[in-house]
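task queued by scheduler; priority normal; single chain, no ligands, no partner chains; default sampling; output format set to structure tokens
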Amino acid sequence: NFENEMNEIPLFTLKNALKPGMVRNLNLFEPRWLKMIDRVTNCRSYVEWDTNNPPQFGCVHCTNKFYSAISIDGSEARYADIIFERVGALATMVALEEGRRPVSGDRKVNVAIVGSDYFVVDESKLSITDDGYMVARDMS
């Protein structure tokens, strides 16, 4: 099941909308997305998951992002205003490959997803995790 005990689903933003049946490959290396993948797979490294209950997350089409530098507790951070379409599609993970970035050696993951059911995000039930990605509750 894609939802956790709080009836939340993580949301990933895409430049091009995911549609049911569409296959996409994601190359993820930003810490927030790595933490999101860890959350939906319940692990840090690749494991085989139950094909009857594969990890899922939501994808929404991001039409624009505005980034600003801000200070949080004396450290530099980024703030983003994100404009996205409220209708998204569930992404079912079909493969995950752990790797390292060539120059830095930092962790990255390649994730293959397939679009499934559409959903609608209620803006009043949207929040940001401490890790920096959006989650939606009680989607229709």
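post-processing summary
- Residues 1-5 have pLDDT under 50 and may be disordered.
- The longest strand covers residues 75-100.
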